Amino acid sequence: MALPVTTSTPAHRSGLDRRLISGVAWTATARFGTQIISWSCLLLLARLLSPADFGIVSMSTIFLGFVNIVAEFGIGSAILVMRELTENQIRQIHALSVILGLGMTGITLVAARPMAAFFHKPELCAVVPVMGLGFAISGFRVVPLSLLARDIRFKTISSIETGTAVIQSLTSLLLAWLGLRYWALIIGSLTGGMFCSLRFTIVSPCRFKRPIFQQVRDQLAYSHRILVSRAAWYGYSNADFVVAGRLLGGSALGVYTMAWNLANQPVDRIVTLILRITPSVFSAVQHDSAELKRYLRVVTEGMALVLFPVGVGIALVADVAVPSLFDKRWAGVAIPVRMLAICAVIRCLTSVSTQVQETIRDVRYTMWQSLVCLAVLPASFWYGSRWGANGIAMAWLMCYPILCVPPVLRTLDKIQMAKREYLKSLSPAGIASMVMAAAVLSLRHSIHGLRPLIQLMLDSGLGAAVYAGVLLVFFRSRVNAFLSLAKRQRSRVSANGISPVQAAT
């Protein structure tokens, strides 16, 4: 069924555009500071802790991350999309969220020994229940956080999450320095979670009411499809860690985990600036096909302009960046980083179309698509493990881009957006990134024998200059539009309602 096409007023469009820009700006400011602290702490933790320490925590989070999805139950998405919810229904859903969190904490007590036996790691008998306390803590913040996001109050959200990241990073670093090994990561995570839940509960208080199924039946129907979709997503997204831990061992898992973090964290940190805000904006225009197309086009192009050079750049310089930043224990990280970085860009871009599908409540298709990925990807990881961590990364690169095509086409069809229009939004970043890659590879071919750190600096400088140059020469109008958006130039809002976001279209 096609979405109704309505015409938003210029004042409404301009106001929503400014809230989008403001949300991105506040999130960007917060993330910039926490990125420096997080990466600095990660590099220090890599020297204080061993790959085996990271491997033990990764083994635990494989299972606990899935339990966390069950505990959340898609409640956050339901509140965000279903703006017709009454106060009475919200209170019932909040009570359900806390009950689910407490229940999942109990499940971790039962699952600890089977997890330890599966991975042949007795340490997990103690690690899993302690980490499971995080579910009881997080259950209190699901609804308050979703209500703030629905109202696009990202200044408040960003400030709380910044404090959480700082407290978690510094706590982990201090405890690692004191010699607590993997417990430093675990206690740091719990400390940050407690601070986060407490702050959200204070800022956005929500009362409890006994859940009555008949009154929240529609919301639970939507939520359970979101739950299945995200559970399947979590299954195939973490199947590579399961395969590496089970078949390759703890040290190999630690190497693969570090490769995953290096390839994905820079991209994830950037894309979070936008993906945390866009569901709220999509929700506000969910019944307007024209506005959904406009925001999907602008968001996709804006993300591509940043993600393409970052992902391609990481793939280009991984072989010189790893020996510059790490010791010889992490020598095997470079090759999987290259492949995973490209997949990270694709994953983040396609996440936008998934958000649109959830907004227009096409969650049944999203659910089945995720189940297809769950059937295909783990098998490919198992086969790729014959070649170690490199083979698992190659499985991602070979299979995931193909699986992403159908849901993107489905989204474009649902909102009646032409494929050419979507591809046009990717062309500036795609063309500039290809020229950038050619320039860096030419430099490598011309200059040999440099120290890794010097080569890294030369490659990064040349790549950034070439990418910016191509955009300024061939896509200047697009760059100017997004620069005005980033600077929130309200002077662009004219009497006829043309805002910076509209200019980017």
- Helix proportion: over 70%
Rg is 23 Å
Largest sheet: none
Spans of at least 5 consecutive residues whose pLDDT stays below 50 are 1-7, 488-505
What is the structural class?
mainly alpha
Distance between the termini: 25 Å
Number of helices: 19
Q: How confident is the prediction overall: mean pLDDT?
A: 80
The coarse silhouette is globular
The total beta strand count reads 0
* N-to-C order of helices and strands: HHHHHHHHHHHHHHHHHHH
Strand content: under 5%
Structural overview:
By secondary structure, this protein is mainly α. It has a domain at about 50-215. About 80% of the residues lie in helices and about 0% in strands. The chain is built from 19 helices and no strands. Helix 2 packs parallel to helix 5, helix 13 (about 335-360) runs parallel beside helix 15 (about 390-415) and helix 16 packs antiparallel against helix 17 (about 450-475). The longest helix is centred in the N-terminal third of the chain and has 39 residues, at about 10-50. The radius of gyration is 23 Å and the shape is globular. The two termini are about 25 Å apart.
Could you outline the blueprint of secondary structure elements for this entry?
Layout: H1 10-48, H2 51-72, H3 75-81, H4 87-119, H5 124-138, H6 142-150, H7 154-177, H8 182-203, H9 217-248, H10 250-275, H11 278-284, H12 289-325, H13 334-359, H14 363-384, H15 388-414, H16 419-446, H17 452-474, H18 476-486, H19 500-503
